[in-house]
Amino acid sequence: MSDSAALLSRRxxxxxxxxxxxxxxxxPLSRAHEICGQARRRLALMLAARAGAPVLWIAGAPSGARxxxxxxxxxLPPQDVIHVAAPRAIDRLWAMEEALRSGAMPVVVAELxxxxxxxxxxxxxxxAEAGSAAGRCRPLGLxxxxxxxxxxxxxxxxxxEPRHGPAGEAWRLERLRARMLPPKTWRLAGGALAPxx
Length: 197
What we know:
With about 200 residues, the chain is of the alpha/beta class. The chain has helices at about 5-10, 40-50, 70, 90-100, 120-135, and strands at about 20, 25-30, 30-35, 55-60, 80-85, 105-110, 140-145, 155-160, 170-180, 185-190, 190-195. About 35% of the residues are buried.
């Protein structure tokens, strides 16, 4: 069956391959995704742990806020993360694009001071697709942005905020944007996801 005939058939199409963190939290591979909120680094670490090592983590100058290896240990072994310091946001996006294009790492994370523009996001999608064809894996790009995010053209946008209480650690996880799914909110506690009430 030709590609055009497959597209026009009435048979259901299979969803693209994705990284599954929980049944309802799936990030399509070979694409760029945005994570915002106060707990954005934690969610990125959880996704990176599921995808496997090595992980490339691109952040600002070494003197700025960095990941704490002791805090990372319960989620992802610190030795699985390669850190790159790039003071300018444009350099971080360039490094992310090149890493995605290589297809050498399953996850590439870039911490940004603000959401990138549509052109930059489109370039990341194209680089991730090229990396899938040329590399050893289908890379996943994670853009970590402050506040409520807002990068145009990302495949999905997620927000995670701490909601700890007397019962222990808990987080509010939101799917703010996805191409094929509606927005949704969950409560994450003890590694289990439940609808937000």
